[in-house]
């Protein structure tokens, strides 16, 4: 807890918030279309000279939020000690965030949903009912880009995938500077044949990196 306390003190006093990017992949399938899109976005980030790293949630052993509310007092998740504990430092230190998810049942994957729910610890709630709230990540110039992959070709079939990432990140204080929906892709790594989508992903990464320079 002392490590988190010191990190949060630095971040929330703008001492260590870096113009670096953390990429989060939410696919359970290794080497698939989501992985390729994430890496291509991060390639665009790195081409600007900005540091970027990727994390695939399938490789992280973590649980969904259990609603214990210990974070209200501790200001970080202390009710669970798992792989998410290792992700909080790079989340806090990175000004840029990339979320990429395939569409599962018109929505993000369970991994992305659980990741977003574990960011609940950054909210500040008032004692009125319904409770007013704010985010401790707001006002720090945080930026994000989103991408989603869908097997079907109609926009309606992607459902809430992008919205399910966009709205929580905006509530947390991130400015969404770009989004990329990719349709008609399912077979593993098939997106490599979609040169237009790959170029759009690369440009999206560059847009994110440049947005953090302002």
Characterise this structure.
- The mean pLDDT is about 95.
- The strands form two sheets. A five-stranded parallel β-sheet has the order 2-1-3-6-7, sandwiched between helices. A two-stranded antiparallel ribbon has the order 4-5.
- It is globular and about 50 Å long.
- The chain contains eight helices and seven strands, in the order H-E-H-E-H-H-E-H-E-E-E-H-H-E-H.
- Helix 2 crosses helix 8.
- It is α/β, with parallel strands linked by helices.
CATH topology: Rossmann fold
Any idea what the shape is?
globular
Unreliable residue runs = none
Strand content: 15-25%
Annotated CATH architecture: 3-Layer(aba) Sandwich
Overall mean pLDDT? 93
For the biggest β-sheet, the strand order reads: 2-1-3-6-7
> SSE order in H/E notation?
HEHEHHEHEEEHHEH
Instruction: Please count the helical segments.
Output: 8
Give the helix proportion (percent range). Answer: 25-40%
Comma- or semicolon-separated keywords:
214 residues, alpha/beta, Rossmann fold, two-stranded antiparallel ribbon, 8 helices, 7 strands, 37% helix, globular
List the helices and strands and how they pair.
Elements: H1 2-12, E1 18-25, H2 33-46, E2 52-56, H3 71-74, H4 84-93, E3 94-102, H5 110-117, E4 123-125, E5 133-135, E6 143-149, H6 155-158, H7 161-172, E7 175-182, H8 195-211
Parallel strand pairs: 1-2, 1-3, 3-6, 6-7
Antiparallel strand pairs: 4-5
Helix pairs in contact: 2-8
